[in-house]
Amino acid sequence: MKMLLKSVIAAAAIAVPSIAAASTWEIDPAHSAARFTVRHLMISNVEGAFGKVTGTVNLDDKDVSKSTIEASIDTTTVNTNEPKRDAHLKSPDFFEVEKYPAMTFKSTSVKANGKDKFKVVGDLTLHGVTKPVTLDVLSPAKETKDPWGNLRRGVSATTKLSRKEYGLTWNQALEAGGVAVSDEVAVVLDLSLIKKDAAPAPAK
């Protein structure tokens, strides 16, 4: 009986650090950004951004493979600093925001990829199409307390997407050859995460 009790205590002692290492973080939309870049007329880059990114990161510092990420980007907030172009991007030629007001991402695996780097694979749903994508992620920064008492961490990620794979096929052929808008889109995510308070223990 004593041996059994010792085994239970030892198992609990091992489990505690793992539990303590897991934490939940909310994406702060006021201090996060989702930016994209496309080639325009084959000669220059046009940049844009989405103004609202929300979601949750369940982070396990001891075993990152147990971490999960879910995020949503409001497509109605697309902004390239040109009202006519933004209106076109919101139309059925592109994001069709009235029908698809958000794009979502849900991770399926998280793996270390060298020092302070990770590969996050997940399903991106955009314009009614779901495809697997891989994010190259820099390790979340250490916890820091902001002036309002919140614990924060920052994380950045990059990837590249094909517009055609998500049905965003609008384009125009150029007289000199080539097309008006590149198929490849470079994406950069800069996220500020706020730690959620742990749920209170149930009353006994």
TrEMBL record:
Signal peptide: 1-22
Top-level taxonomic group: Bacteria
Residue ranges annotated for the Lipid/polyisoprenoid-binding YceI-like domain, each copy included: 24-194
Transmembrane intervals: none
Keyword entries, A-Z: Signal
Any Pfam family: YceI
Alphabetized Gene3D superfamilies for the sequence: Lipid/polyisoprenoid-binding, YceI-like
Matches recorded under InterPro entries: Lipid/polyisoprenoid-bd_YceI, TTHA0802/YceI-like_sf
UniProt protein name: YceI-like family protein
Species of provenance: Stigmatella aurantiaca (strain DW4/3-1)
